[in-house]
Amino acid sequence: MNVDVAVRCDNLVHVYGTPGAEVAALRGVDLVVKEGETVALLGPSGAGKTTLLWHLAGLLKPTAGAVEVAGKRLATLSAAELAVLRVREIGVVLQNPGRNLLPYDTAIGNLLFAQRPTRRSGAAKRRRAHALLDSVGLGGAATRRAGRLSGGEQQRLAVAVALANSPGLLLADEPTSQLDPVSAAAVIDLIRAANEESGTTVVAVSHDAAVGAALGRTVTIRDGRVGSEGRSGEDYVVVGRDGTVQLPPEMLDTLPPGTLARAVRHDHGVDLRRIYDAGESQ
Amino acid sequence: MTGALTLLRALLHRAGTTVVILVVALCATAAATVGPTYYVAARHSILQDTLTATSVVGRGFQAVRQGPVQSSIGALDSNVTHELDQALGGPATVRRVFAPAVLALEATAFFPNLGENVPLVWRTDVCAHLRFRSGRCGTATGEVAVSASLAALNHWQTGQRVQAARGGPLTISGIYLPPDASGDYWFSRGGVYFPAEIPIAQAAPYDALFTPHATIDVLSGNPQGSTVIARALDVPRVTPADVDALGRLDSRLNNASLLNGVAVATGLSSTVDTVHSSWSSLSVPVIVVTAELLVLTWLLLFLVVTDAVEARGTEIALAKLRGYGAARAFFFGLGEPLTLLALALPAGAVIGWALTGVLSHVLLRAGTPVPLPGLGWAGATAAAAGGVAAVVVAARTTLTRPVVEQWRRTGRKATDRGWVFDAVVLTGAAAGLAQLLIGGSLGSAKHSALALLVPGLLGLAIAVVGSRLLPVICRAWFARTRRRGGLGPFLAVRHIARRPGGTRTTMILATAVALATFSLAAWSVASNNRARVAEVTVGAPTVFSVAPDIRTDLGAVVDHIDPGGHAASAVETFNSGQSVLVAVQPQRFAAVAHWKAGFVSAPAALLGGLHPPAPDPVVLQGDKVRVHLDVNTLQPAADRLSLDIVATGASSPTPIDLGVITRQHVSITRVGSLAGCPCTVRDLQFSPPASRPGQITGDVTLTGLEVLRAGSWQSVPHALDAGQWSDTADQQVAADGNGQQVHWSFFAVIGIPPTLSIHDRPDPLPAVAASAIAGNDSTLTLSGLDGADLTVAVTGRVANVPAAPANGVVVDLTYAERAAFGNLGPATAQVWVRGDRERIRRGLQAAHIPILSTRTSAEADAELTRQGPGLASVLFLADAGAAAVLAALAAVLSLSAAARRRRYEYAALAATGASRRTLFTALVLEQLVVVGFGALTGVGAGLLAVVIAGRSVPEFVVAPVAALLRYGPSPLLMVLALGGGFVLLLTSAGLAAAALLRSVTAEQLREAPA
Questions:
Q1: Which residues of A are less than 8 Å from B314 in CB distance?
Q2: A92 vs B321: CB contact, 8 Å cut-off?
Q3: Considering chain B, what is the average pLDDT of its residues?
Q4: What is the structure's pLDDT at B415?
Q5: What pLDDT is attached to residue B354?
């Protein structure tokens, strides 16, 4: 067990539906996220990003493969152990701001609600709640009902709630999708701050380029597989467990789907060369 | 603390749902409290009513030992007290439930010079129960108090010394007025002590002498007599807990070895049986009605909570996402309904208690305590516990639903297993109905409170089927509404067809309405039947039992008091056990008696034939009577002639011997003495010599009948009128009168003397009889007012005769009195009154006619209402009310659920251009169809239940005559109540639709659809 690995997915497969009407959302995802990393899960709609995130939160059971979070294989945990893991290790921010909160409760009430399963004292919970509210710029809105906050304020509060129990892993699903640019930037700043100040590992699903740019690593999911990764501004394809490689879309002009290609080994890799009618490659 | 605040905010946030859940929970706990609390209070009321209504013998006992009276009371008292203590569990209980014992020593004092044997009595505290016309109660040895009648008879005065055979002279210390001996103190010994006022057979007509104990003690020779101990219950202090022990007292006292030779008279066991019977007739309806309401409220709670928890699905998912374990998520998810149930437990119990207090104040005996018993708390707790179970079952799906399914809204459908629930309910209901049918609880001849289960079971069964049919029917309307009818009907029909929640609401609504309909109908039927039974049993709005002097013509008095003829009627009745002769003033009786209650629509016409013309009676008033007779032929000779007359008040005719007739072809005149007249002539009779019994033939002419008055002979008026004499015996006779003479020829067989009878009434008497006793016979032989056989000719048949519905025979009072020859001693004299009874009472008092008792049909109705079945029937009304409230809640639930679901959709429709009128139409139609279908189904089920089980609902402790009972509820009441309910539902649907439409705004589109 590698303690510096926050998340590990081994050949993760997930099939939705009933027999006869299955849809494979994940087709063998291999992914390792180290502690303290910030990862943006990118990809087109329906690629399986959110499904992958729900697996990381322990909300789904893999059809095949395995998921480890904080060194624990989730499929082997009981419901109670999963609940404890969520309290201690996982914070989740959902796409819809309203869905993260109890609309009738106050801002501080929502933070206390999130901390209720912990064994902290009441005073400690309150101190933590106030500190978090201050950190997300809602110190003055502690007693306002969550339902009456603006969308941006609600999402900032949602981030605070997700961080209430100081999780090692912060999972965010489209955290900025329904926000104006200013609010979105504020939320991104909060997520980065959590990573930088507390070393929280972050995995965020997003279509927002700003989110991808703000996080240290991007993982692009296409057709239920990890298609590519971006690190330090550079994109890489990822070789699958079965040897498959998803070419970046812009290369499909050169190698359109259905093209015959010859793989040529080199010392540091493999070249793909297109085969034309005469059987010659160019 | 923060959790409590969050909970409170959540409750306020969902105020509508909170209120609905709270009200339903309150209904459940209150309903569960009302039943047991009402039952406990009603038991007390029934007990008190029964003990009060029964005679003192029924609520006490009297132990009498015959033998020497001196020094006998102590031992008897001690033995009786010992047995009482043993039976009731100790002296404290005995002292509480029984009034102090009344002891008595009853000897006799014989006055040789007067030839009178007069009761000489010592009785505990008797002086406090006598009123004195003069003097005082005796306090010293040898002092006696004598009654006014005895003093008048013997010309005794206060202070006078009178000589009795034993014990020397007695001093009259005072003259008392005979008291009302109906009080508990006298314990039905009024006939023993005051026979001059309360005549009973074989009693010497001398009222008792009351004297101190010491007078009895000094009587010489320890005279024989009765030693008496009487104890009556102190009714207000008797509680239901004492009843069983009191029921065993009868047997214990009669079988105790210590009381050998003591005659114990008590009706306690019979009274206790009556109490138990009344209790049990209430207990089952209480359980059944309470259970039905509970099940209904639980079902409703199940629906409300299902909806409420479903609405909180995302919050529960959020809690799980935040790491809430199963238990914590459970309490978070169900915190609101569980809190409301916890609140409803004490609040509902108190509300139920308060409602019972109001109900009891109106219905039960005044002063009945209404505690909130442990049974009431247990009921409320059971209701709350059932509510918790309903909540848990309702929330199970949402609580166990995975978080992702909640978010993706692709979870299992709520209706996936709905058919299982429906099938279970339907099977249970059908099985219950089958059990009732097979078990015989619904037989028309049987009464079983289990019949009360029918409306609930039937309503539920029909509602389940109906709720499944409604979407199918609506689906069938799809095509029609798509082709024409506009968007409104299309949306309405579509929503109903696709909405399982709606069908559940329909089910609850239909069941509640079925219960309400049946309960209302059952109450209506029971109250109508009670009123009818009370009216027909009593006979008239008010019945005075009176004691006219034997020389008083009660009919004439009534004619004088009520010249209009519509307010009072004199009535004499004689109950032989098999039949009741009701002798009446026909036209007055037609106006006064409760005929309509007995289903007789034209009593005046019916009774018009009871008094055909008949000669007046021949009345003799004088010192002697003289008979003139032409004896044409008489074989054999030496027959004895006698004239039978009946003196006023006499119980049998007195023959006046007119001597032996030895010759034929002669005119004779015979004289006899009269005593105690005026007297009524009954007949003239020949009797053969005792030594030669045989047939008699003859031909005689009665030429004169005279009385000697004031020294001169006067002809008796109308004595020889045509039709005045007849011969009713089966003999070859002919009687012919012309005003001057009566010609009589006869041939009498052996053993039946020739008798020429006075004809002063129709014979047989025309009569209107109850169909049950008359059958198809044209004549009936029953007992007349004098107890002797009387033949009547049935001229009319009625379903029910007032005061004797099944075995009454109504005849004319005048003729019935003549048939009894004025001997009305065995009959009961009454005056029946309709309208101003005080006026009649004053008139009777002015005529010096004592009123012994007063009975009103309203009182009888009230008494029936306060018996077990009567009190249970009020529960039906309460049941109807509660069911109506639950139906309304179900409708509100339907409306609010629709509102929540439709708001987003209708906002979208409004945004795309659908007119508000169209949306209003859609909403109103949807509500009308859902609520209206449920209500109509419920009404149908309720009425069907009335048809099936209406006759089986117990209405009386002692079943009355079946011909009195009707099982159709009051149409007016049903139409008004059900029509009012429908109007209310329609109005609610319209208002709810309007309110919902007002809340449909474009802002709704910003929210996720519910």
A1: 99
A2: yes
A3: 83
A4: 46
A5: 94
Q: Do residues B145 and B137 touch, judged by C-beta distance below 8 A? A: yes
Distance CA B460, CA B462 (A): 6
How far apart, in whole angstroms, are the C-alpha atoms of residue B904 and residue B1004? Answer: 6
Residues on A contacting B at a C-beta cutoff of 8 Å: 54, 57, 59-60, 79-80, 83-88, 90, 92, 94, 96, 98-106, 109, 112-114, 116-117, 122, 145, 161, 165
Inter-chain residue contact B12 with A112, CB threshold 8 Å: no
Sorting pLDDT into bands at 50, 70 and 90, what band is B293? confident
B285 shares its domain with B223: no
What pLDDT sits at residue B411? Answer: 41
- Does residue B563 carry a pLDDT above 90? yes
CATH number at residue A232: 3.40.50.300
Same-domain status, B521 and B566: no
- Cβ distance A102 to B315 less than 8 Å, yes or no, reads yes
- B38 and B166, same domain (yes or no): no
Note whether B609 and B844 are within 8 A (CB).
no
Share of chain B above pLDDT 90, in %: 25
Give this complex's ipTM.
Answer: 0.89
- What's the rounded Cα separation, in Å, for the pair B717 and B728? 23
DSSP for B743-809?
Answer: EEEEEE-TTS--EEEE--S-SSEEEEEEHHHHTT-SEEEEE-TTSSEEEEEEEEEES--TT-TTTEE
For residue B419, being part of any structural domain is answered with no
The DSSP letter of residue B101 is P
Q: Mention every residue, 6+ apart, whose C-beta is less than 8 A from residue B101.
A: B77, B80, B81, B124, B229, B230, B231
Q: Please give the structure tokens belonging to residue B881.
A: 């009310």
- Across the interface, whether the CB atoms of B9 and A98 are under 8 A apart is answered no
Least CB-CB distance to A83: which of B12, B315, B325? Answer: B325
Contact (Cβ atoms closer than 8 angstroms) between residue B981 and residue B880: no
Q: Cβ–Cβ of B1008/A59 closer than 8 Å? A: no
With CB atoms and an 8 Å threshold, state whether B320 touches A80.
no
Taking CA–CA distances from B313, the nearest residue in chain A reads A99
Strands (E), B562-613: 568-575, 580-584
Same domain, A206 and A263: no
Q: Are residues B885 and B964 in the same domain?
A: yes
What pLDDT, in 10s, does the model give residues B372-390?
Answer: 999 899 989 988 998 888 8
Tokens of B975: 């139409």
A99 → closest Cβ in B2, B314, B323: B314
pLDDT of residue B901: 67
Query: Among B266, B292, B315, where does a domain finish?
Result: B266
CB contact under 8 A, B3 and A100: no
- B403 has a chain A CB within 8 A of its CB: yes
> Is residue B788 a part of any domain in this protein?
yes
Which pLDDT band holds residue B1010 (cuts at 50, 70, 90)? very low
Task: Indicate if A31 and A125 belong to the same structural domain.
Answer: yes
Q: Are residues B204 and B109 in the same domain?
A: yes
User: Rounded to whole angstroms, how far apart are CA atoms B231 and B241?
Assistant: 19
**What is the extent of the structural domain holding A273?**
249-282
**Residues B392 and B275 both lie in one domain:** yes
**pLDDT tens by residue, B775-800:** 888 899 998 888 788 999 999 999 88
In terms of residue numbers, what domain contains B573?
Answer: 548-613+763-849
Q: What is the pLDDT of residues A31-82, one digit of tens each?
A: 999 999 999 999 888 888 989 999 999 999 999 999 999 889 999 999 899 9
Q: In this structure, are A169 and A273 located in the same domain?
A: no
Task: Give the pLDDT confidence score for residue B442 in this predicted structure.
Answer: 58
**Cβ contact A117–B324 (<8 Å):** yes
CB B780 within 8 A of CB B737: no
Mutate to test the interface with B, among A88, A94, A102, A110 (most CBs of B within 10 A): A102
SS3 B901: helix
